Amino acid sequence: MYFSVFQRVSSLSFCQHLSVIWFVLWSQWGTEGAVVHLYVSPSGSDSNTGLQSSTPVKSLQHAVDLLQSRDIQGNMYRCAVSFFCPQAIFVELMQGYYDLTSTLTFAHAINGTAVFRAFQGQEVHLTGGRHILSDHFKHVTDTKIQQRLPEVARTKVLELDLTAVGITNLGSLTPYGMAYSTWTAPLELFINGKPLRLAQWPNEKFINILSVPDGEKGRRFTYNAGGRDVAWTLETEPWVYGWWYWSWADESLPVAHVDAHNHTITLAQDSQYGVRVGHYIPGFPTGGSQQGGYFQVINMLSELDEPGEYYIDRTNKKLYLWPNTALQTLTSSDIVYVSILSRCIRIESVAQKLNFEDFTVENCRQHGVHTVLTVGSFAINCEGDCRRVSVLASEIHDTCGGVHIKGGDPKTLTSSEVLLQDNHVWDFSRTAAVPCRAFDIGGVHVTVSHNYIHHGQYTGIVWSGNDHVIEYNHVHHMCWNSSDCGAISSGRDWTWRGNIIRKNHIHHTLRYFPGADVRGIMLDDEYSSVLIEGNIFYDNEVHANIGGGRDNIIRQNVMYNATKYSIQVDGRGLGSGGHGVYLTQKLQGSLFNTTLWKTRYPALAAILQKHPTAPEGNQIYDNIFYNPIGIKGIQYSGSNLERKDYFDVHNNFRAYSPGDFWSPKDADFRLRCNAVQWADQEQFPSPVSVEDVGPQVPTGPNYLRARRHPASARTTAVPVACDSSTVAPATTAPRGSYMPDGSSPNTLYPNIPKEGCWFVVDHCPKAPAAEGTHKDDIGTQAGTEEGCLARAAQQWRYCGSSPTGQVVAVYGPTGAMTVAGDGCFFAEYGCQTQNPGFHRDTFAEQHQNASHNEAACLARAAPQWAYCGSHADRPITSIYRPTGNFRTAGAGCWIKILSCPADHTLQGYFYDAWGATNLATDRYRDECLERADRFWNQCGSHDNAPVTAFYRPSGASRTVP
Questions:
Q1: Do both 811 and 927 map to the same domain?
Q2: Which helix (DSSP H) or strand (DSSP E) does residue 80 occupy?
């Protein structure tokens, strides 16, 4: 299939679009070496030739039939042989509405290229609907109907006798939502290009399910409707729409019975996942297992209570509406349509060169453009193996989905050469949520570039397949009616490799409903191997996540002002809740073992050699984070995930002030102050400007020429002075540990020289000469604090591992020391009635095997400090004496720098007073641990000069690199 789309898609019934066809036609009317024009007009005649603007044909299907006629095909063959051919055929659509009585069908291949376009940029509408004159609508006079209407609507609602205007095909109400991506809308109503909606309640948001009497797999549920459900019992075809179990799975369902006395609804069929009690509170989203369980009632005459709503009485063929016009009534100037056709344009032959340009396609019940290879309900729908399809400079809105397209050859990884560029897509989930995406791409190498996508109930861009490029798009306000969602997302496949998401602006993807987080980019259910680079994320709940997958790279992004955390990662494949069996089956059914795929995706070829469900090989580096105090940069959701072979997190910059960016309120994220210094050092690329994302050309047809979305101009205001948001650092510090670790002077052994490694041995049965204080030559030769302190346990074992003796190792340059011996000990300044000093942790030894379990011993420091009152001047150190390893719990965030080549003023083991004052590092673990990155960067980012941050209230630490 070869076709391009340049147009505006608007007011589509369920999912449709607008386009122009580009189609080369050789000299079938005897014109040699010239361009041929075929004119079409709603006021023309199919008995005309159509070769002059004064003699246009009337119907589009007649024009298509002319282009596909056998005589013309024969002439085209002779033309090709004789080389006397027109360059192209332009089907010139003259001003007006083209109301199709049947789908415009391209059933035969056309040799050459044809362009269907608006003649001289005139206003042209191709509709799949029926125009209804305003004088056919009357005020409701039937008293029974008036009594069923809400009182506020009785003088506002108009009615239409559908049979009187010849409309009998009303379509059928059928379920829609997550499980119904192929849904076809019934008859719908549009006024002046704007859709109306089925009457519903509540008019905004949802109501909670209060109970499920038959259990979650039952069909009954109760609610509180404030008594208005008495009117529901009179409805002839009531429906409900909701998020019945999960806040990522919407579904509409027919109602079997309404019990207004017990405030109970019984569904006519099962919900896909069941029904649960709801905990939805507008403005206060909850999480976890409390998601789902809320709904609306729809298709009820008794709820037709505001402008823009309608209801169809299918038994009596009556349409009731409250017009969504400024006057809330209809005049002769209002254009009213109802949708009739399922598809507006159908292309059955794959050998087409078609271009649709500069006109509107609207009022179809399912697709605007449909190929025989596709299913679905998008404005433009093409899959199977679509090649060289371009959708350019279009406007698509009020649909259920924008473009659904799949092409290319996975066997050979041959590109589809599909280009979706410079489009404006918004309000593309008008009816349903989850199945309605702005772009749903698959196959091999689809490029999605420079599009403006906004205001979707669920995801904006979904991809499957390989080697796609998603770049320079402006995406915002996604997931506004759901949770566990991503503005751009994919999931549950290890083989979809080679995909790139770069240089997009993604913002205001926030959660307003209960359930799991919403993200700017969501890599769901162990999705693996995507490159996310150079994007600007701001004002999202979570900017990006890695949902247990592998080999993903997140680098060189600006991540500003997350409301929950910047990046969330997990290891869901490590537990029983993973998808390993399903993913392995998909993998083994793929081409991953072919020579081509092994060459292109070597990490995929080796995936089964290790632990495929482990989140291995992910990299997060060279990103810039800014968050308010207490918002994490990276959240590890799960235990034992902070491993470099899982998530290699390094060399990220933590901005501490909005002043590190030029003007975030104007989406101007040029770097300045500390950020620009780091960026220059790391060769961080300039953040992509908001002016360079989204459409770079005007979108939509000439008659409605909508300029591309307003971009924030470069601000000319002078930014605030660098670091003006900081305050002076704290002047007091918590006390260092009783057993010196370098954070305070060694008062226990003050006479140890400030060089070398020293032993203090009180008892050495196997080598009595080693008793006393003396220099340890081996530890001194090691030359490091770590090497020296490790010698304590070695010397204790050399002395015979006596339970009554101990060995102290002291590193002279810093005064840090440790003690080796038997058992688990505390070193403290005193707790309640205890005196300062060393004493055995008898509780841990008796109840937690801490004499022989190092982890159990060291974990005791933090709870013991809390038990003793969490005093800033009484830190507690746990020591596992068989190894000499220790862990200190206490107040504050402490930094240990043994070497700082780029700044010799930074060294030693010190309290982070500036961080405590400006970042609350004493209260927030992650704020403290992220300081290791900042100091390491400040010291020059040398692999042989690590920096460690210690968050003493929990005993946690982090070393970079």
A1: no
A2: helix 70-82
Burial of 871 (0-12, 13-18, 19+ CB in 10 A): middle
CB 607 within 8 A of CB 587: yes
Q: Is residue 155 part of a domain?
A: yes
- Domain total of the chain: 6
In this structure, what CATH number is given to the domain that contains residue 276? 2.40.30
Yes or no: say if 391 and 174 are a contact pair by the CB < 8 Å rule: no
Range of the domain at 313: 131-198+307-338
Rounded distance between C-alpha atoms, residue 800 and residue 143, angstroms: 103
pLDDT tens readout for residues 539-592: 999 999 999 999 999 999 999 999 999 999 999 999 877 888 999 999 999 999
| Residue entry with tokens 């939509």 | 700
Q: Which of the residue ranges 65-79, 255-269, 399-413, 738-752 would you say has the lowest mean pLDDT?
A: 65-79
553 and 493 in a common domain: yes
10 Å Cβ neighbour count for 796? 28
Q: Where do the H-state alpha helices sit in 6-69?
A: 60-68
* Structure tokens belonging to residue 958: 């982090």
The 10s digit of each residue's pLDDT in 586-625 is 999 999 999 999 999 999 999 998 899 999 999 999 999 9
What one-letter code names the amino acid at 117? R
For the segment 142-166, the average pLDDT, to the nearest whole number, is: 96
Count of CA atoms in the C-beta half-sphere (13 A) of 278: 26
Q: Which residues are bridge partners to 807 per DSSP?
A: 761, 820
Q: Name residues whose C-beta falls within 8 Å of residue 923's C-beta, 6 or more positions apart in sequence.
A: 630
In percent, the amount of the chain with pLDDT more than 90 equals 74
Task: For 305-325, write each residue's pLDDT tens digit.
Answer: 999 999 999 999 999 999 999
Cα separation, 165 vs 531, whole angstroms: 56
346, 476, 386, 382: which is closest to 424 by C-alpha? 476
Domain identity same for 351 and 406: no
Q: Tokens at residue 259, please? A: 């019990």
Domain assignment present for residue 696? The answer is no
Contacts (Cβ under 8 Å, ≥6 apart) of 529 = 494, 496, 497, 498, 499, 549, 550, 551, 552, 601, 603, 604
CB–CB of 914/656 below 8 Å? no
Residues 607, 646: one domain? yes
Distance from the Cα of residue 300 to its chain's centroid? 35
User: Is 454 a residue whose pLDDT tops 90?
Assistant: yes
Quickly count: other Cβ atoms within 10 Å of residue 777's Cβ: 10
3 state SS of 869: coil
d(CA 290, CA 304) in angstroms, rounded, equals 31
Would you say 58 and 111 are in contact if contact means Cβ atoms under 8 Å apart? no
Angle CA(17)–CA(178)–CA(424) in degrees, nearest 5?
30
- Please check whether residues 226 and 276 belong to one and the same domain: yes
Same domain, 589 and 449: yes
What number of residues does the chain have?
A: 961
Does 247 share its domain with 277? yes
Could you tell me if 304 and 157 are in contact, meaning their C-beta atoms sit under 8 angstroms apart? Answer: yes
Please state the φ and ψ torsions of residue 678, each to the nearest 5 degrees. -65, -45
What band does 722 get if pLDDT is binned at 50, 70 and 90? confident
Q: Is 750 helix (H, G, I), strand (E, B) or coil?
A: coil
Radius of gyration of the chain from its Cα atoms, rounded to whole angstroms: 35
Asked whether residue 490 is domain-assigned, the answer is yes
Whether residue 904 lies inside any domain: the answer is yes
CB distance 445 to 423 below 8 Å: no
